[in-house]
């Protein structure tokens, strides 16, 4: 297996986890906040995908799919490239209303396809290429950051799903 295929397999695994964690949830489920100042599942899925989109666009040097593919309209959000959820207040969290799960996953799948195409064409030398980002100065650092951020938020989504559905939710989702 080439290293590019290995990275793509990690992205595919993240996608499978995201799909399973959202499976069977209603619109009400994805918009429930465990407490007034915490993230909902819908907000977490949106936020991780927005950051994934912004990171991918930065790597590719292209426009974010949020605007380019008009995902902002499907989420009923402004066409604001900086609207990533970072520093959202409790009021912002409460005001956020996610669309249906299939819309959330559609946006995630679009970004996933773009990053997989990008990784498939990377060379080893590209990994050391410097990029304009304060926390992730190279392509490799940015990709590691995507993995880290995504897995943290996917885990948070799974945790909240468990809070909502109770013991055994994971086995129920995996069987269907």
Written description of the protein model:
- This protein is mainly alpha-helical and 176 residues long.
- The chain has a single domain (31-175), classed as dinb family like domain (Four Helix Bundle (Hemerythrin (Met), subunit A), Up-down Bundle).
- It has 10 helices and no strands.
- The chain has helices at residues 3-22, 27-31, 41-60, 65-68, 71-74, 90-95, 101-120, 124-127, 139-165, 169-175.
- Helix 1 runs parallel beside helix 9.
- The longest helix is centred in the C-terminal third of the chain and has 27 residues, at 139-165.
- The protein starts with a helix and ends with a helix.
Name the features.
176 residues; Four Helix Bundle (Hemerythrin (Met), subunit A); globular; single chain; 66% helix; mainly alpha; 10 helices
State the distance separating the first and last CA atoms: 31 Å
Mean pLDDT: 93
Backbone CA Rg:
16 Å
CATH fold-level label: Four Helix Bundle (Hemerythrin (Met), subunit A)
How large is the share of residues in beta strands? under 5%
**In sequence order, what are the helices and strands, one letter per element?**
HHHHHHHHHH
Sheet with the most strands, sense and barrel status: none
The CATH class designation is: Mainly Alpha
Q: Which spans of ≥5 residues are poorly predicted at pLDDT below 50?
A: none
Number of strands: 0
- CATH structural architecture: Up-down Bundle
Overall geometric form: globular
Put simply, the count of helices is 10
User: Helices and strands: which structural class?
Assistant: mainly alpha
How helix-rich are the residues, as a percent range? 55-70%
